[in-house]
Amino acid sequence: MVDPSHSSLPAGSSEIDPNRRPIKMRSTRWAQALARTFAKFGVSPNQVSLFSVVCASVGAGLFLIEAFGPGSPWLLVGAAACIQLRLLANMLDGLIAVEGGHQTKLGELYNEIPDRIADVLFLASAGYASQHRAWGVTLGWSASVLAVGTAYIRALGARRGAAQDFCGPVAKQQRMFLLTIGCLLAAGEHIASWSRAALFWILVVITIGTLVTCIRRIQHLAERLETAS
Questions:
Q1: Is the pLDDT of residue 4 over 70?
Q2: Residues 115-153 pLDDT 10s
Q3: Cα distances (Å, whole numbers) of residue 220 to 68, 84, 164, 181, 225
Q4: Peptide bond just before 73 cis, omega within 30 deg
Q5: pLDDT tens column, 33-59
Q6: Which residue, among 154, 135, 151, has the nearest Cα to 203 in the 3D structure?
Q7: Contact status, residue 143 vs residue 54, Cβ threshold 8 Å
Q8: Are 122 and 86 in contact (CB under 8 A)?
Q9: Core vs surface per residue 169-183: b (16+ CB within 10 A) or e
Q10: Whole-angstrom Cα distance, residue 48 to residue 40?
């Protein structure tokens, strides 16, 4: 049941909480309006979080059909759309929960666990769809493990009393942006009948960039632990 006193969102909430991922679009009018609409119809932030896993599952299915079935550029375009829908869900769940006042006791679990599942589904399946056999599969799973690692290091720092560290260079938004670009470039290769390389090299960039992100977050955490009183 939605609390009527929390049925609307402020028109321009500011992102001042250091423990929230900085997302510029969160304060846009269309995002606020969409979150208000969902809240009005009783959609909970936890349901939106679970929807991100649905998007990732569909996207992973499209990648796997591309890898093992009859390939089509539309499969890759569809996967790109699923990635963007996942990011939209990630933004809206926070808007409904925090700005809309619909936080729940289990909200942190719903915020984190679906995100990790979505990362693995997208990145691992993209490795199969890269059409580079064992190398592509290895890259996809490596990127998945590293993506989960960035979140683990961030959560470990928060457990030690530090602010959540969302530093890059390849955090979640950057990973998903790069993967979206990779999907669209691979769709273009399909249409032009070129050899398939774009998705593979995008995964190379994601894997290396996510590794650097892990290292940076470990360094930041070590510095905070050393200077803690």
A1: no
A2: 999 999 999 999 999 999 999 999 999 999 999 999 999
A3: 42, 30, 11, 30, 9
A4: no
A5: 999 899 889 999 999 999 999 999 999
A6: 135
A7: no
A8: yes
A9: ebbbbbbbebbbebb
A10: 14
Distance CA(160)–CA(157), nearest Å, equals 5
One-letter amino acid at 73 equals P
| Block residue for tokens 């470039």 | 185
Q: Are 121 and 60 spatial neighbours (Cβ–Cβ below 8 Å)?
A: yes
Residues 185 and 130 sit within 8 Å (Cβ to Cβ):
no
CA dihedral sign of residues 83, 88, 91, 93: negative
Place of tokens 């799973």: 141
Structure-block tokens of residue 27: 């304060």
Question: Which residue from 133, 150, 132 is spatially nearest to 206, judged by alpha carbons?
Answer: 150
The answer to whether residues 127 and 65 touch, using CB atoms and an 8 Å cutoff, is: no
CA distance 48 to 11: 20
Instruction: Check pLDDT > 70 for residue 101.
Output: yes
Largest CA distance in the chain: 61
8-state DSSP, 164: P
- Between CA 117 and CA 172 the distance in angstroms is 13
* pLDDT, tens digit, 9 for 90 and up, residues 188-215: 999 999 999 999 999 999 999 999 999 9
Among residues 115, 144, 113, 114, the alpha carbon closest in space to that of 127 is found at 144
> Which pTM does this prediction carry?
0.89
